[in-house]
Amino acid sequence: MSDDTKLLFKQSIDVESNELPDGYVVHDRARDKVHFLNLTAAILFELCNGRNTVTAMEEFLQKHFDLPHAPTTEVESCLADLQSQGLIERIQAEAV
Predict the structure, then answer these.
(1) In whole numbers, what is the pLDDT of the chain averaged over residues?
(2) What is the largest CA-CA distance in the chain?
(3) Is residue 1 part of a domain?
């Protein structure tokens, strides 16, 4: 991914999510598809609000799961999967 300190994601407007005990079920109304997200993917999906950078997401998961290192590769892979499925959209942070 490009500069993770500026890269942001937001949820696609055509999706609706519902919480399950072990993750989320997400309905993509535009494509009429249903996706099941595990807990980690559901957390990342929720963090895709247009305000959290990829770096912030990595740090959040590191603290949440008490990991010794930020799960950089795993986060990038999950975000790429969510994006390829049309559940999130990549946006660029505005210059300050």
Answers:
(1) 92
(2) 39
(3) no
